[in-house]
Amino acid sequence: MSERAIKQLKALRDTGVSTKQLQQELGLRAQETVRRWLRGESNPKPDMCAKIEKLSESAGIITTPPSTNPFE
Fold it and tell me: What is the pLDDT of residues 49-59, one digit of tens each?
């Protein structure tokens, strides 16, 4: 899960979102936390991965896949 979140963070950075903006959007105290994730020195926890996913969706980086349940 965290590997996917880090890819999403990198994609957000590629679109011009700054580390400071990511830090603020994710409600983190320090930009260094985002930098450590991007460098692979640490991984975001599951709750933060969910926030990163939502941020990526709202930025149009990813979209929620369609349901795989044929009965829905």
Answer: 999 999 999 98
